[in-house]
Amino acid sequence: QTFIRWFDAGEGELKREAGKGGGQVRVMTVHGAKGLQAPIVILADAADNPRSTKGSPLALPDPYDAARQIPLPSLRDAEKKGPIAAVEEQQQFEEMQEHWRLLYVAMTRAEEALFIAGALGPRETNGPAPDSWYARISAQFQPEEWLEDPIWGARVEHGEAPVLVPAEQVVIATQELPLPPPWLHRAVAAEPRPPRPLAPSSLGEDAEADPPWPPGSGASAAKRGVLMHKLLERLPEVPPAERKAAALAWLSRSGAEFAAPARAEMIAAALAVLETKAWAELFSPAALAEVPIAAAVGGQVVAGTIDRLLILSDRIRLVDFKTARRPPASLDEVPTSILRQMAAYAAALETAYPGRMVEAALLYTQVPVLLAIPAELLAVHKQALIAAEETF
Q1: Which of 159-168, 170-179, 242-251, 364-373 has the highest mean pLDDT?
Q2: Phi-psi region of 308 (alpha: psi -120 to 50; beta: other; left: phi over 0)
Q3: Which of 78-92, 167-181, 250-264, 281-295 has the lowest mean pLDDT?
């Protein structure tokens, strides 16, 4: 109490943040000291009797709801019978376990020296309580180990005190340290920035504008394009004789907002694509769907996803799906941006598979129509790709 009154009368600042000691004294509970350390730690209240303190209020589990607890009022010892006595015994056991766990925490906070002390109450005439930290620790020493002390009457010590280094020696030792290397004071060079990957699908917008959507049909047409894309991705894995039935079943779930004639028209268009003999191998089990690809072309990283890809020993064939509402009638009407996109795919595949010929085609699912792109036309747009630099 004297210390508390002295502290209140002063201008000291109470800080709860954990930080370095800095030559100061910190007074805290053992719970608050978890994770901290200090050169000197004093257990100032180690003689406290844990059984004399009032424990947590008792509560019984609800027999009708295991998740609930029934709080109990204060009871005399004679009234604590049966389940109440069992709950109190278990609670006291858990509190004692926590009592000893906190002792371990308290004793492991010291870096150099640990002082264990305490004060006895007026009724504690026979010394500290047996379950106090002080009694448990002092029992580990033999009577002959106790030494006379002019202040405390007696004390017991364990271990060697650390050797104190004079401040002058510390300064001299610091001055004799070698100078840090020059590179320690130089700024770190900027890391080389890798080129931004180029997505072929973002090389440019179509120069030719599609006709406007009829009022209220824009979302429906976009949904149709997605369904057509999914059909062409899934149906090649189904045997030809079962494709129509599988498409009907899938569209009845995924395209239920379309009427039956519209679903039948989409299925007919998808099957017509799969039955195109010139490129039938691109929809065979040997071909791949939705293939991610990345390669460095002329110092530029090209990364994208190819709709259908067939890799053979001597050549590679790829098809990209387009859902334009007004498909080009011939290759001359294909926008330049789409040709650059296909050239980027072809250049990336030639880098990943050197020595193989790459054949590319566009599949317009609205008609459907398949337009093969000649190799000489791809070469022209590949040269433009290599010469161009993408800006950030």
Answers
A1: 242-251
A2: beta
A3: 167-181
204-231 average pLDDT score: 64
Residue 334 is given by DSSP the state S
Cα–Cα separations (whole angstroms), residue 355 to 19, 238, 315, 351: 65, 33, 8, 9
Q: Which amino acid is at 129?
A: A
pTM: 0.45
Residue 288 near residue 311, CB atoms below 8 Å:
yes
CA atoms within 13 A on the CB side of 297: 31
Q: Would you tell me how many other CB atoms lie within 10 Å of the CB of residue 287?
A: 19
The owner of tokens 């589990």 is 61
CA angle, residues 115, 116, 122, in degrees to nearest 5: 140
**Cα end-to-end distance, the chain, whole Å:** 70
Question: DSSP code of 201?
Answer: G
Cα(35)–Cα(48) distance, rounded to whole angstroms?
23
Helix, coil or strand: residue 168: helix
Q: How far apart are CA 343 and CA 352, in angstroms?
A: 14
- In the chain, where does DSSP find H-type helix? 2-9, 82-107, 133-138, 167-175, 218-234, 243-254, 260-274, 336-352, 375-387
Distance CA 224, CA 227 (A): 5
Answer yes or no: are the C-beta atoms of 158 and 141 closer than 8 Å: yes
Percentage, residues of the chain above pLDDT 70: 83
> What's residue 42's pLDDT?
92
Confidence of residue 389 (pLDDT cuts 50, 70, 90): very low
Residue range 158-184, pLDDT digits in tens: 887 777 766 665 555 555 678 888 888
C-alpha span between 235 and 232 (Å, rounded): 6
Tokens of 258: 């379309």
| Cβ neighbourhood burial of 65 (10 Å; 0-12, 13-18, 19+) | exposed
Report helix, strand or coil for 239.
Answer: coil
Peptide linkage before 368 cis (omega within 30 of 0): yes
pLDDT tens, residue by residue, 21-51: 567 788 888 888 888 888 899 998 888 888 8
* One-letter identity of residue 320: D
Mean of the per-residue pLDDT values for the chain? 80
Alpha-carbon dihedral angle through residues 162, 168, 169, 174, given to the nearest 10 degrees? 120
